[in-house]
Write a structure and sequence with these properties.
The complex is a heterodimer of chains A (about 775) and B (about 80). Chain A is of the alpha+beta class. Chain A has 21 helices and 28 strands. In chain A, about 30% of the residues lie in helices and about 25% in strands. In chain A, the strands form seven sheets. Chain A has a seven-stranded mixed β-sheet with strand order 3-5-1-12-9-10-11, with helices on both faces. The longest helix of chain A is centred in the last third of the chain and has 28 residues, at about 525-550. Chain B has a five-stranded mixed β-sheet, covered by helices on one side. Chain B has a single domain (about 5-70), classed as Roll (Ubiquitin-like (UB roll)), CATH 3.10.20. Classes of the chains: A alpha+beta (about 775), B mainly beta (about 80). The interface between A and B is medium-sized, with 36 and 23 residues.
């Protein structure tokens, strides 16, 4: 393992610099777009489907149009470009015309003088439907006889990836464990729902203020739907009131652009919480059958996995989520014989798409449960079997590719071994508690690649010097609460040899920043950070060249120090403000752009979209849980997590990200699921969809393993997603440790745990 | 008339329906990106990112003999140079 160099002379990187946007967000001073009110502004509402699956026979908007205060009612006839959106496959209508496939489908959009009128008008849109059979079970949907959600059939993608000879390995195994696991349809539940404002600028260009994760992707989808050039659309995507992947796809953007274009007035659209619950993106529920084999020594020798993922009515990012699930279904282990068979299936349920972990959380639960069972059957310690099998630097991974990036997963397990929680696990298990409560300790290891794997990916950033001698960094990746702006500031200050107060990040604006790519795939730091590092030498050269002319000193006799350029003997000084003004006066461009070409494998693995990734993040976690055997209620008391995220740019952001991820993982493991019955969402608000609160927060300890990742800025990897990956499996394994009851379906609600306690090993499924 | 030989590598969703992710295409001397796309049987081709040497091309960009062109879904790929 290559460690980050702790003695490297870094002034800003590696320090807990307070969050640049933190004070505004914590005091409430930050105004999100859903808070904004503009003069002459209209309010928008979406008229959505009344049926989860039906043909549309007629749409009549006359009553809605005639309501006083209504300014515009738009239907599919008003879509001037492609009537479809979706980042991977644009199969979701902007406005439906012939068919609806789930209750979130949009039929018409209304702009009115106030929100109440817009809401009333939406209810006045009349649609004649011819209901169709509703398909909500993905297994039933795969039956050729099932009602077709899309004309081409319900299996959107069937992916098979194989390596070695799994069949033969199973025959020679000492132990084989096979089980089927089910995972929930988790909702992002960001505090700010999908929202924004659309307007036209003085040149008639569309301007969108929409909190999102990808301003240039939004620009592309909006221009595609409106049939206009991308440069006619400006997208400003920050601030964002939470995203977690749920704002990577188009939500309100296209509708706002259409209404602003039609009315020539600013238009605001804020989805209600219930609307977000119905129309918003969810995590893919998966049914995962995992068959894992080991030899007598506990070496994992084969893994066969079948995944059925419910993508709901439309694709969104489903094909790539499935790909990541396939890639992570063999975990952070070197298993030489693998056979993965995965299906992505359309149903009439909510649309599934990107969510922190992106397919890896689901399959990790299945594999890590199997690993514990194998260890038990072989009489091997749960920690030792993982130490024996995890990847080391340069190893060949389960899909036959050498791991190129730094690998610190073994060291995360050593951190676990030395953690206070693991060392004292017997003490914690046997601590006195209520007679009807039992305690257990669970362990799990996880992995996830950062970036888009074998897909080509590029990123750019700009640096401009202002007349006051400050630097403006142009980055299009939005800050979505992860601390990216602060990290970019630290990287830029380090690279430009200046103070962090001299850096301003102009982020997430398609007009002000070049395309840095998206805030997704735990990649914003690596994309943006490397692009800054590519631009910084160009800026330093620009400043030194100008200073050389001003001071009449050769370039090699000058150096940059905080706010000025010095001659080496310190007798001559030009301030950065003087240099910037000199450049402007002489007509020299004060902005430079740096580009980063993300390293990748030349060809994806046969059958996959983007397998493998160049580098991966790793995690090992330990959960201490207490189960009330009378009710089945489970409480996580303590959680220890060690992760390899490369060099840590900002330790405070690192801890904060992981603490949030652990809590989100607890929600996935114990309480969260979007319940859908016959296509109707029964849990579409905080009253029925329960997420963890401060009362559910365990005592958390997180520790980094700081490997040096060659492709990351200053050796950093991403870290946004890895914190959640191993959490649900560690909790499920802890429940077994406490009670002897295996959990095969998440969330492990009190009802499920209680049933499992009654049935022990007989319990299987919901 | 002189022909331009262009090597095309197709990634992500657009490649899923193809037999091969890499093809060599013969085009006329003044061929553009649009001419190349017209020869390919892939869906929603107007909205894909077409990249040469890390630079995203427009539909009217002129192609040269020996070019290696990447066709990628709009999920990935910012501006590079």
């Amino acid at each position: 393992m290559t460690l980050a160099n702790p003695t490297e002379d870094l002034r800003w990187v590696g320090r807990s610099i307070p969050r640049k946007e933190g004070a505004g967000k914590t005091t409430g001073e930050t105004k999100f777009f859903s808070d904004m009110i503009l003069p002459n502004m209209l309010w928008a509402k979406v008229a959505r489907s009344k049926h989860p699956h039906a043909l549309i026979r007629r749409i009549d908007v006359s009553r809605a149009e005639s309501l006083p205060g209504v300014v515009a009612v738009l239907t599919h006839k008003d879509v001037t470009g492609l009537n479809g959106f979706g980042i991977v496959i644009p199969d979701q209508p902007v406005l439906c015309y012939d068919k609806v496939r789930f209750l979130g489908d949009a039929i018409a959009v209304i702009a009115a003088e106030n929100e109440e009128i817009a809401e009333k008008a939406a209810q006045l849109v009349q649609v004649d439907y011819e209901p169709l059979p509703v398909v909500t079970d993905p297994v039933e949907a795969m039956n050729p006889e099932a009602a077709k959600v899309h004309a081409k059939g319900n299996i959107l993608r069937h992916e098979t990836v194989r390596n070695g000879n799994a069949l033969e390995a199973f025959q020679n195994a000492a132990v084989v464990v096979e089980h089927t696991y089910c995972t929930p349809r988790q909702m992002h539940m960001f505090l700010e729902t999908e929202a924004g404002i659309g307007m036209l600028d003085e040149n008639g260009n569309v301007v969108l203020y929409v909190g999102g994760q990808a301003p240039y992707r939004d620009q592309m989808q909006v221009s595609r739907a409106l049939g206009i050039k991308p440069e006619k659309v400006r997208v400003i995507s920050t601030p964002v009131g939470g995203a977690f992947g749920g704002k990577e796809e188009n939500t309100v953007q296209i509708h706002l652009a259409m209404l602003a274009t039609k009315t020539q007035r600013p238009v605001k659209l804020v989805w209600t919480r219930e609307e977000s619950g119905i129309a918003g993106i969810k995590r893919h529920p998966m049914i995962i059958t995992t068959k894992t084999a080991a030899d007598r020594e506990g070496n994992l020798i084969a893994n066969q996995v079948k995944i059925i993922a419910d993508t709901g009515a439309y694709a969104s990012l489903g094909p790539t989520v499935l790909d990541v699930a396939v890639e992570n279904s063999c975990g952070a282990y070197k298993i030489q014989n693998v056979d993965i068979d995965a299906y992505l299936v359309y149903t009439n349920n909510c649309v599934s798409g990107a969510f922190r972990g992106f397919g890896s959380v689901q399959v990790n639960f299945a594999l890590e449960s199997n690993i514990d069972m194998i260890a038990e059957k072989l009489g091997i310690d749960r920690l030792e079997i993982r130490k024996k099998n995890v990847l080391r630097e340069g190893d060949i991974g389960s899909f036959g590719y050498a791991i190129r990036g730094s690998v610190g997963v073994y060291e995360t397990l050593l951190k676990v071994e030395n953690s206070e929680l693991w060392k004292n696990r017997l003490k914690y298990k046997t601590e006195k508690t209520a007679a009807w409560c039992k305690r257990g300790i669970g362990i799990a290891t996880g992995v996830k690649g950062f970036g888009f794997g074998a897909l080509p990916d590029f990123a750019a950033a700009s640096i401009q010097i202002t007349p006051t001698g400050k630097f403006v960094i142009g980055i299009s990746c939005p800050e979505i609460g992860q601390g990216a702006i602060t990290a970019y500031t630290q990287i830029a200050a380090e690279a430009l040899h200046c103070h962090i107060d001299d850096i301003y990040i102009a982020s997430a604006d398609s007009k002000l920043a070049p395309d840095t790519g998206t805030t997704s795939a735990s990649m914003a730091l690596v994309r943006g950070g490397n692009a800054i590092l590519a631009a910084a030498p160009k800026m330093r050269q620009l400043l030194l060249t100008a200073a050389s002319q001003i001071l009449e000193e050769p370039l090699d006799k000058l150096r940059i120090e905080r706010s000025h350029v010095n001659s080496l003997n310190r007798k001559k000084i030009a301030t950065l403000a003087q240099i910037a003004q000199y450049l402007e006066k002489n007509g020299v461009d004060t902005k430079v752009i740096g580009g980063f070409n993300v390293p990748r494998f030349e060809k994806p693995a046969e059958g996959s979209i983007e397998i493998p990734h160049w580098s991966y993040m790793y995690a090992s976690g330990v959960a201490l849980v207490e189960i009330n055997t009378m009710t089945g209620a489970t409480k996580v008391l303590k959680f220890f997590l060690a992760t390899d995220c490369g060099k840590i740019i900002n330790p405070q952001s690192y801890s904060g990200q992981h603490e949030g991820a652990i809590l989100q993982g607890i929600g996935f493991a114990l309480m969260e699921d979007t319940i859908i019955k016959d296509g109707n969402v029964l849990t579409n608000n905080f009253t029925t969809y329960i997420i963890p609160t401060i009362a559910d927060m365990p005592e958390i300890q997180v520790e980094p393993v700081e490997t040096y990742e060659k492709i990351g800025p200053f050796g950093a990897k991403g870290l946004g997603e890895i914190g959640i990956v191993a959490v649900p499996a560690a909790i499920a394994n802890a429940i077994y440790d406490a009670t002897g009851a295996h959990i095969y379906s998440l969330p492990a609600t009190p009802e499920r745990v209680y049933k499992a306690l009654q049935n022990k090993d007989e319990f299987h499924g919901s | 008339m002189k022909e331009n030989h262009v090597r095309v590598k197709i990634f992500g969703a657009p490649s899923l329906t193809l037999e091969s992710r890499e093809v060599e295409v013969k085009l006329g001397q003044n061929a553009t990106t649009q001419d190349l796309l017209d020869t390919l049987v892939i869906e929603n081709k107007d909205y894909l990112y077409i990249v040469r040497d890390g630079i995203r091309l427009t539909s009217s960009s002129k192609l040269n003999d020996g070019d290696e062109i990447l066709i990628i879904p709009p999920i990935a790929g910012g501006f590079c140079k």
